[in-house]
């Protein structure tokens, strides 16, 4: 089972990906000539956001597991 800390970290990663998506969608709408370039950069940003979230999620899962062992 995923603990509370890990769920919060996952929430923050998803929030970052969602923000990148909204910014990309609005940018592509505002400047249609660069739609392809905007989405390429946005996808890379979303992938990097997910990659940067792996370590905090793993750390939170270890902390949750340690707390469960204490109980």
Notes on the structure:
The structure is a single chain. Helix content is 89%, strand content 0%. The chain is mostly helical and 71 residues long. Helix 1 packs antiparallel against helix 2. It is rod-shaped.
What is the fold's blueprint, element by element?
Blueprint: H1 4-30, H2 35-70
Helix pairs in contact: 1-2
Provide a quick synopsis of the model.
The protein has helices at residues 4-30, 35-70.
How large is the count of helical segments?
A: 2
String of helices and strands: HH
What fraction of the residues are assigned to beta strands by DSSP? under 5%
Query: Which residues form runs of ≥5 with pLDDT under 50?
Result: none
Assembly state: single chain
Main sheet record = none
Helix content: over 70%
Rg (CA only): 16 Å
Structure class: mainly alpha
What's the overall geometry? Answer: rod-shaped
Structure keywords:
71 residues, mainly alpha, 0% strand, rod-shaped
């Amino acid at each position: 089972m995923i603990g509370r800390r890990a769920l919060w970290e996952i929430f923050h990663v998803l929030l970052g990906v969602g923000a990148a998506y909204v910014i990309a969608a609005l940018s592509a709408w505002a400047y249609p000539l660069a739609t392809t370039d905007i989405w390429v950069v946005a996808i890379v940003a979303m992938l990097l956001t997910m990659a940067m979230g792996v370590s905090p999620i793993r750390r939170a899962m270890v902390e949750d597991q340690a707390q469960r062992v204490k109980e």
